[in-house]
Structures are given as C-alpha cells and as structure tokens.
Amino acid sequence: MVKKSSDHHEHLPAVTGGTVRSWLWHQTKPFTPPWIVTGIVGAAGAGANLAWGGSAWAGVGLTLASVGLTAATWHAGRTTGRQRRLHSAITVAAASTWTTAAALSGPLTGPLPDLYLMGGAALALSWNIRRVMRSATSEAAEPADKGLLEKVGLARTKLKEIRVEPNRVSVPYELPAGELTNDDIARAIPRIASALDVPTTAIRVQHDPDSARKGQFVIVPEDMLKTPTIWPGPVAPGQSVAVPLRIGVYDDGSDLVLPLLDAIHILVMGMTGSGKTEGAVDVMLDLLTRSDVAVWLADAAKSGQDFQPLLPAFDWAALDSHSVAAMTAAIQAVIPVRTRWLRDHSYRAWEPAAAKKQTDPAHSCRKDGQACGCPGLQYLLAWIEEAAKALRELGDDVFTGIAQEARSAGVSLVLSMQRASGYQLSTDTRASLPAALCFGVRGDDASFALPEEVLDAGANPSAWGNKRKGYVYLVSAGVDEDLYANPARTFWTGPSGEYERAARWVVEHFAAVRPELDEVTAGAAAKVAGQFFTERRARALGAPAAPARELTEEQESEQEVAALVDPEDAELDATAELAPVTANTELPAAKPSTEEARELLEDLVAMLAEIGPGTVAVKDLKPYLEQLGRDRSWVSKEMKRLASEGRLAPTTEDGVYRLVPTLAAA
Hints:
This protein has 666 residues and is of the alpha/beta class. The chain has helices spanning 20-28, 33-52, 56-76, 82-105, 112-151, 182-196, 260-263, 276-287, 321-344, 387-394, 396-405, 427-431, 452-456, 498-509, 519-529, 531-534, 536-541, 553-564, 594-611, 625-628, 632-644, 661-664; strands spanning 158-159, 163-165, 168-174, 203-207, 214-219, 245-250, 255-258, 266-269, 293-298, 316-318, 379-384, 411-417, 435-438, 471-475, 488-490, 615-617, 648-650, 656-659.
C-alpha cells in the first residue's frame, strides 16, 4: 500500500482507493459545462436547420428570440459584477447569432463551421480561465479574511461583496446564527481598527434594522476633514427657517445640515477648544439670513463675547444674570400665548404659513369663516449659551417645563454647555432635548449626548477631545440615521477679522430680510419681563437706556398721594379721634433702616421661594409688615424694584411675581 503524502500530494488518490482516470475526471469536471453548452449549441443549430431551413418567418422569429435572450441575460446580471455581466451577455449573443444563422442556411454553410469551432472553443476556454482566476483569488483572500475575523473575535462571519468608493469601503457582513449579534460587532470595532491600522473613528457600523446579525462595515481610511472648509455663505438666504441650516461637511464631502423644525430642541456639548462656539456661530450666520425667525440669545457667562459682531441681528440678547432670568420667564410666558394663537388659527404646529399675514379662511380666527388678516407669528429660537450657569441659578426644572411645553408653540430651545451630566441635567430635561450636536469630549461624557446605538455604531467623540476642533456628530430627526455615526466638521469662519467681516455682512445685508418680532410674542414678553424686554436692544448694545416716560402734574400728584396712603386705610376717616392709649402699652421697637428693611424683605421672599407655590404676592407679606416697619405701599414699591432688577419676574396678575432662584441665592 502506498502511503498518502502530508503536503502537496495529499489530494492524489491512493492506488487502492481509485484510479488516475477518476482523479483526472474529478479535477476536470468543474470545467466541462462550457464545452457541454458549446456542443448543445451546435446540435441546436443543426436541428433548427432541419425544422426551419429556408423559412423567412423562422428567420424573423429566431432573430427576435436572439435579441430577447441577450437582453434578458443583461438584465438578469444587474446584481452581479460588471465583468461577469458583460461576459455572459457576449456569450449568449454569440451563441444565439450562430444558431440563427445555422438554422437558416445550414451549420456547414460558408464560414459557419469555422466560426463554430474557433468561436465556441474560445468562449468555452474564456469561462474556464475565469473559473481558474476566481478560485485562485478566493484561495488567496479567504485565509486573510478569516484570519483577521478570528483575531478580532468574529470567527465564522461571512463577508459579502465589497463595494469600493473613493475613500470609502463598504463591507456587508453576516454573523453566524445563534453565536454572535450586532452588539459583538460594536465591541470589536477597536480591535478591527487596530488590525487595519486606522483610527477607531474611521470605522462605523450600519446595522440591518430587520436583522440582529446582519449589517455592513463602513471604513473611511483617510481623514478628509483635516483641512477645514471655509464658511461658503448662507444656503437659503431670504427663505424660511423650515429649510435646513447648512453648518458643515461630513467626511464624505456631503453637507452637514441641521433641520431645525425637525430637531425642535437641541443639546450642544463640547469641551473647551473643541469648536463648540464655532459651530454655534455657523448656526447663527445661516439662521440670521432667514425671513421668519427671531433669535433670543442668553449668555450671562461670557456676556456675549463670542457673538459680539452678531448682537445687532438678535431680537434679544440677554448678557447678564438678571436679563437671563427675565428672558427665561418671558419664554415661559410666551409659550401658552403662542399656542393659543396657533390653535385659534387652526395650526396643529408652527409652519411657514403661520409667519405670514393670515389671508387664508382655513387659518382664520373669525367665526364667520372669513379671512381674519391677522399678522403672522414668527418662529422663535432661544439659545442658552454656557447653559450650566443658567441651570445652576434658575434650576433644571425651569428648562424641563419649557422644552416639554414649547414643542407645538413654534419655539426651539438650545442648551449649549461644555459638559452635560446627570448632576446638571435631569433625565426629564435630557429626554426633552431630542437632538444633539456633540463635539469633542472627555471620557464617557458622550454617553449623555449621544444615544447608545450611535456609540455602538462607532461614534467616539472622546477620541477627538480638543485636538480636532470643529469635529462633531449630529443626531436629529430629519437626518438619515446612517449618518448619525459619521464624523462631520463645522465650517471655519476664517482667521481673525474674517469672522467679523462675515458677521457684519450678514447683519447689514439681511437687515431687511429679518422680521420684527410678532406682536403676540412681544406683548407677552413685555408684560412679564418689563424693561428687560422693552429696552433689550439698548442693554445688549451698551447704549443708554431710553428715558422714562414723563408724567403730567396730575399723575405725579396721584402717585405721591398713593405712596403716602396704605390701601387698607384708604377708607378710614382721617378726622376721627384715636382710641385712648392704655397705661401699660409697650413702646414700639426701633424702626429698621431702609437698607435693613430691604435685606429683611429679600430674606422673606427667599423663604417664600422655598415653601411657596412658585409665586409671591404683596398680600403674602402682610403678616410681616410690623417686622419690616413699613406699610403695604412700601412693600409694593420694593417688589417692583426687585422685578426691575430681574430678581423677580412679573406675572400677568397685578401684584403677583414669579420667584427667580437667583433671588434665593442672593
């Protein structure tokens, strides 16, 4: 007995197990189908000649059949490679053409025998060569693929047809059933990146929504975002805010767009130096060219330092704590007023038509079915820059309520902060901010900004930190979910001086495009925020405040009398005799000074802020008048003073004020 070899002879049959002839047949059998088909074509041509030789109608039918068969082959090959599709179509066209000619004139007529022998052999050999090359390629590639997958813990994973595009490779995969899931793919991304020697952010995974074990790898080997893209100008100047804002580019060169009306409320997060402010400027530069949106900016932390060139274009810029408190109270107050307006005009939510004059009877507040002609209602964006300070001073619940109630009022809330965490934002507030722009962060901070499935798909902003300025991930309704894990980079406004030049152009060139704040919103804000709203432009731009309205002599006299008379004593008879004083009456304590009384009043209001229902009225302080050593009119004046300083927020009810947490901390 001949012993089998252990290397290249292992595939040769043993003498006792078979013959050389059977081995040769086993090796050549995969290459016989093209030759068998060639023989069938020759027999078909001879048989067709016996049946239809010399028939004109048969010639027409065979010609149409040849064309149809070739077209069907080309169509059927659309899911295969380009070379295989072309090879198949040429083979079918040649075979059907020869068969038609042989059927009409005979297979042995003219050059048909030579064409059959040479052409048939050539086509059969071409398919044999194709099979040999494919087998060689598979044998060379398969071990490498399997070796890589085994190294990263994905053994037995099947890789399907690879699609190569400029700087982008897509590799569909199928995990072994019952052994691995897409969660295992997410955990393997760092090891795959190490094996391919690329950064982890260069690999992302797109899961098949209909399968727990299928999807595709997307590999971007070269970082195309290293060179920043200069801000190209507004994408839709003069149009509605409903048109998405263009704020940067993805790593494949496509536009990074923010659909504000779909995003509604946004959390913007990024550590110092990550480019978060640059991204905010990109949003503002595009937003301030639109025709139906008003922008309110709150920035008490930096007093609007990064937005100075754009301040004239904002409808309201609150640049100190008192102004921010007043703006927050105004946002709370305008939401129900705007919602009622939209309801009365038959809008389920804000849309561009709501910003125009209401000439459509379908959107009329009149009961007779006629157009009402009411002025429109602009969209409102409230951007809270460095929101951590506002959250500390005003409380997290304030913004939770705004985010939850503003959805249908045409109001968007943006909270921009360096580091969002459970200590600053409650889960309720975070859940009310459905969209996120996440720049570079530290460690696990990204888990508070980006959904878990986006992080599992390969998003890793902690890999950038502040080393990749402007790099960002965008998660928002209205954006293709496959792009959530794709890195992007916001536009660069250029070196020093270029940003100021671009901002000045936007402020001046689009001044006529930007609308005045609608009367509905302005009226509600003025009633609550008072002079913080009515004098908002002067306060933001540093101009002297508008002079107080002059009063007539009669009005001044009435105010002086009102200040001297306690409202509770207004009906008393001033000429009536006083009651006799008993002998043992104690002398009253010394009256507090004005400053002492003011400090005591603030302490009392702070106490009420902790135990009260959220508002305080002048009448609530009645039990403490003796302790203050003042009458009710004095308390009323002081409450108005606190409101004018932004430490209390007026409400729609006279003499009742909303408590502002900054007062409690004073």
